[in-house]
Amino acid sequence: MLTNLEHLGLAVKDLESATALYTTLLGQEPYKREHVASEAVDTVFFQVGGSKIELLAGTSPDSAITKYLDKKPEGIHHVAFEVDDIRVEMVRLRAAGFTILNDEPKRGADNKLVCFIHPKSANGVLVELCQSI
């Protein structure tokens, strides 16, 4: 079961200027910066009430974020939901007709196991499922 809006992922070209902008907008410093080598992405997290804002910047031309920004403007990249058991949710959602982009959950940023639902099966929205490790 999806238990919480975990975060909104925002694709940005310049992580430092986006971090400065969101620091001013939200009136607080980010609580975490992290490099996710497997995804070739640098991330910055802000806590906003019970949810988070994740800024994502690609670190190589092969990064999914870099490729995304080659085609689309900066902005909302994905919506992430917290789940209690990611594998159970993957089975449930596949059975309900959703296209899951991962065969198995993978380690993501912020100490989470993650998987993604293809936007074509979620009305054009890339959905991430997150389970705390």
Automatic annotation (TrEMBL):
UniProt feature coiled coil, ranges: none
Lineage: Bacteria, Pseudomonadati, Bacteroidota, Cytophagia, Cytophagales
PANTHER family: METHYLMALONYL-COA EPIMERASE, METHYLMALONYL-COA EPIMERASE, MITOCHONDRIAL
Any single biological process term in GO: L-methylmalonyl-CoA metabolic process
Start and end residues of each VOC domain: 4-132
Name recorded for this polypeptide: Methylmalonyl-CoA epimerase
Annotated keywords: Isomerase, Metal-binding
EC number: 5.1.99.1
A Pfam family that the UniProt record links to this protein: Glyoxalase_4
Enzymatic class: isomerase
Record family assignment: Belongs to the methylmalonyl-CoA epimerase family.
Gene from which this protein is expressed: mce
Gene Ontology MF, one: methylmalonyl-CoA epimerase activity
